[in-house]
Design a protein that fits this description.
By secondary structure, the chain is mostly helical. It has two domains: 87 residues; 308 residues, no CATH class. 70% of the residues lie in helices and 0% in strands.
């Protein structure tokens, strides 16, 4: 009986979140999403589990995404301080600009010291060089609905999920896993208004799939690509690469990272560090607008000493997680994702420049934990093989 009630209650909670977002958010895109998603989740309440998931995806993501993309006026909305008009979050237009800069100058990063004015947050591109790939359609073919970066994010996310399922033999997906990873409000809101975090999560899931299906070389390649897109993926990738693969793969991972980042780094090292490292950590010339009620941000708001304290706590949490991993390495993908949830959750809580939307990561990773646990229970030989590989890696 409890299992039968869980899904409707969960979807009612999701609907409540959507209604509050639609009525109270300052962002136009958020309000549009909230209106569609509230209906989607209420429809999901009365549908059977798997139909409910598809209803939430269609009405709560595809429909509002289409509305926002086809009504976006980039010339009027982008790089303005009018969030009530934004059909896309700043992530989208910054990434699209980064692709144009890369094609024109060989680097996606603006030299903020050469602007002839004081820089502001919109001048920064707080992503790795490979994130520019998602902005290339717009850079090559101009602004249009089908060149919106969110289309690329969605295509990559779907492709990564489909490839993962195919490599795993099309396993049955637990409903709870789908609810948390695919149709939670944080996932659908992110996919509709920005998109890059959902693509990152899907690629991390693909990395885990490649590990447990013994495609280690490809796992390392995808892992290096993900970290070269957004640094926030690093805690998850550390677990999956450094603690589930042999030491020789760490060298390959480092080599791939160099290949992905060195070309841009060599063009303008200062700009690379300023945008991709200092800005996300709150150490740049301009403070990141990312804010949240989380401890790291609140401590950093106390001033320079508070910022140092927040960074110190963040580093300490990272070292504690690393010690935990060294003391008891993950033996299965589900075991690894449990550590990822803890490590990523701690990082989000303690980052000086964090935001509520980053909770999409631990929420989705809990869903992936449920999914991979189901896969490994259904195929115990695969779990045994994974354990053997970890033992070999420890010995090697």
């Amino acid at each position: 009986m409890l299992g039968q009630l869980r899904s409707p209650v969960l979807y009612l909670g999701f609907a409540g979140f959507a209604v509050v977002t639609a009525m109270s958010s300052e962002f136009h895109g958020y309000r549009v999403w909230g209106a569609f998603a509230a209906v989607a989740y209420l429809v999901a309440v009365v549908c059977r589990d798997r139909l409910a998931v598809w209803a939430a995806l269609g009405l709560g993501c595809a429909a509002p995404l289409a509305v926002l993309i086809f009504n976006r006026n980039a010339a009027a909305e982008d790089f303005t301080n009018a969030p009530w008009n934004w059909s896309a979050q700043p992530d989208v237009w910054v990434i699209e600009r980064s692709a144009r800069l890369l094609l024109a100058h060989g680097t996606p990063y603006v030299d903020v010291t050469a602007l002839g004015r004081a820089p502001d947050a919109h001048d920064y591109t707080p992503y790795g060089p490979l994130m520019t790939v998602f902005g290339l359609p717009g850079a090559l073919f101009g602004d249009a609905p089908l060149t919106d970066a969110r289309i690329m994010f969605a295509l990559v996310a779907v492709a990564a999920v489909v490839l993962s399922l195919r490599l795993l033999g099309w396993p049955r997906i637990p409903v709870l896993a789908a609810q948390l990873a695919a149709v939670s409000p944080l996932t659908l809101l992110t996919m509709t208004t920005s998109g890059e975090d959902v693509a990152i999560i899907a690629l991390i899931a693909l990395t885990a799939t490649l590990v447990i299906t013994k495609r280690h070389g490809w796992a390392v390649v995808v892992a290096a690509v993900v970290v070269s897109m957004k640094l926030i993926a690093l805690p998850a990738i550390v677990v999956l690469v450094f603690f589930m693969l042999a030491r020789k793969h760490i060298a390959l991972f480092a080599a791939m990272l160099a290949c992905c980042n060195l070309p841009v780094l060599l063009v303008d090292p200062d700009a690379f560090v300023e945008h991709a490292i200092r800005f996300p950590t709150g150490c740049a010339q301009v403070t990141s607008p990312a804010s949240s009620p989380f401890p790291g941000h609140l401590i950093a708001e106390l001033g320079p000493a508070g910022h140092v304290a927040a960074l110190t706590l963040l580093i300490a949490a990272g070292l504690a997680t690393l010690a935990w991993l060294l003391a008891r390495r993950p033996a299965t993908a589900a075991d690894a994702f449990w550590r990822v949830v803890v490590g990523m959750g701690a990082a989000i809580m303690l980052m000086p420049a964090s935001r509520f939307g980053y909770l999409v990561y631990p929420t989705a990773f809990i869903g992936l934990l449920v999914f991979f646990a189901s896969v490994e229970r259904a195929a115990p030989l695969s779990a045994t093989a994974t354990t053997t590989r970890v033992t070999s890696a420890n010995a090697g």
